[in-house]
Design goal:
By secondary structure, the protein is α/β, with parallel strands linked by helices. The protein has helices spanning 9-24, 36-42, 44-59, 67-72, 77-82, 105-119, 123-135, 161-175, 193-207, 212-225, 228-234, 250-260, 277-288, 305-317, 340-344, 376-391, 399-415, 422-448; strands spanning 65-66, 89-94, 97-102, 240-247, 269-273, 296-298, 324-326, 352-354, 367-369. It is 51% helix and 9% strand. It has a 6-stranded parallel β-sheet. It has a 3-stranded antiparallel β-sheet with strand order 1-3-2. GO terms for molecular function: ATP binding.
Length: 449
């Protein structure tokens, strides 16, 4: 129920924090009618101390604290036992030394974000902070406490992504007056911040070749900020979105859906995998839009299932923009093809479709790729993916990646020597050898463990 009444994850966490403060720490000082600003004011010092601990430790990737750590931030073990902190910090038994941690990393990230949202005082500081947290660009000079004496390795940026999303949510809360009682004064030029942020996000999508996770994080940040003015400025600059070869959750797809609905849908190339049927429903809503401009849709390696793909066919029935659709390894099953002929025979834009040859009778101009080995582009995409896994063996810990590799290998084995074009045959042979090597080395590694 709490998720249904809030639009973002940040709001849910903030609601929990207010509940903990109000009902577990201020029993004698606050009741149900006490204004939010008064509740926050009463807990201001504790939240400030806790937020600073959370933030500075997060930059160091530190999640466990001893008594001395707590005391250096004005937090005592007695506080943990007797105040609302007992619902945020927990005691750990680490050998003979008593240690503490936030009861979940996301709670630490949320409190760190709240601390930063309260302590930044101008548009410039907000932009400098996002440059630093998202891309590792250190601010030249700043009076903000959270931007002074900071040090962060570039390889640690990924660990700040959830924190950055929470920050955008807490920044929105501050602009809405929901942090009154914690903040000293309004942000300088507060009214112009949504547009300024829109231009910042626009620039990231326009001038940078974003990595998969970086692009996805920006979408989540826009969702958490949840302001139409900002998203409407940024979204039109998203021309391509490559989220291929990474696992996407329903929440990821919700962020993508939220952002794209504020653009004239200039997005022309969309690639992702590891989706389930719920994500397919969200993607179908994008394809049904009258302003959709997606031309290439790569959905290889997804687990759409028959229900998800049935919805996809319905969306494509009247879509007039998608020209290429790639659907290898999607768990379609026979039931998932029940309405494909009726739906796609009415589609006038599709030019290339993997698998499903029965459509050729009704759409003789439609090029059907029966197996991914028949398409050099798909073969190369799979080769690139295998190279990524070879470079980062931790990816082999993912069951989905291992299963996907076996599915690709099975497709290669089925194709066998039937591949007609020499170049395709050579790439297929190279791909098969590399996958077999990966799976073999992964089995040996697991056996060694």
């Amino acid at each position: 129920n709490i998720f249904r009444s809030h639009e973002t994850v940040s709001e849910v966490y903030f609601c929990y924090l207010l509940t903990a403060v109000k009902h577990h720490a201020l029993k004698a000082s606050a009741d149900r009618s006490t204004p939010r600003s008064e509740v926050l004011s009463l807990a201001k010092q504790q939240l400030t101390n806790l937020g600073k601990l959370a933030y500075e430790s997060l930059l160091q990737r530190k999640i466990m604290f001893d008594t001395a750590d707590l005391k250096s931030y004005g937090v005592t073990p007695a506080d943990v036992q007797s105040t609302f902190l007992c619902h945020i910090l927990q005691s750990l038994e680490e050998e003979t030394v008593e240690m503490y941690s936030f009861f979940h990393l996301t709670v630490q990230e949320h409190l760190a974000a709240l601390y930063c949202a309260v302590n930044l005082s101008s548009q410039d500081e907000v932009i400098q902070a996002l440059d630093f947290w998202c891309f590792g660009r250190h601010p030249e000079s700043s009076t903000a406490a959270c931007l002074q004496n900071i040090d962060l390795n570039m390889d640690k940026l990924e660990s700040l992504q959830m924190f950055t999303r929470f920050f955008m949510g807490m920044l929105r809360a501050r602009l809405a007056g929901q942090l009154d009682g914690l903040v000293h004064s309004p942000l300088q030029q507060e009214d112009g911040l949504p547009a300024r942020l829109g231009l910042w996000f626009q620039d990231q999508f326009k001038s940078k070749k974003l990595e998969n996770l970086a692009a996805l994080n920006l979408l989540h940040c826009l969702l958490e900020f949840h302001m139409k003015e900002t998203t409407s400025i940024a979204a039109p600059e998203i021309k391509t979105l490559y989220l291929f070869k990474m696992k996407l959750s329903v929440a990821d797809c919700a962020a993508m859906h939220y952002v794209l609905q504020f653009s004239p849908h200039n997005l022309q190339d969309l690639r992702y995998n590891c989706l389930d049927k719920q994500a397919a429903f969200l993607e179908s809503a994008v394809l049904k839009s009258n302003e959709c401009q997606v031309k290439k849709l790569f959905m290889c390696g997804n687990n759409l299932g028959p229900e998800g793909v049935l919805e996809l066919w319905n969306a494509l029935e009247h879509n007039t923009t998608v020209e290429e659709l790639y659907l290898d390894i999607t768990g379609i099953t026979e039931r998932g093809t029940e309405n494909i002929v009726n739906c796609l025979s009415k589609n006038t834009s599709l030019r290339t479709l993997t698998r499903l040859k029965e459509l050729q009778q009704r759409r003789p101009g439609l090029r059907i790729i029966a197996n991914f080995v028949d398409d050099l582009g798909l073969l190369q995409a799979y080769l690139d993916w295998v190279e990524e896994i070879r470079a980062d063996r931790d990816q082999m810990d993912s069951v989905k990646n291992a299963d996907a590799l076996r599915s690709v290998l099975k497709g290669l084995q089925v194709a066998g020597r039937k591949v007609e074009r020499k170049e395709n045959a050579e790439k297929a042979e190279e791909l098969q050898a590399k996958i077999e090597e990966l799976l073999s080395s992964s089995t040996d590694l697991m056996g060694g463990r």
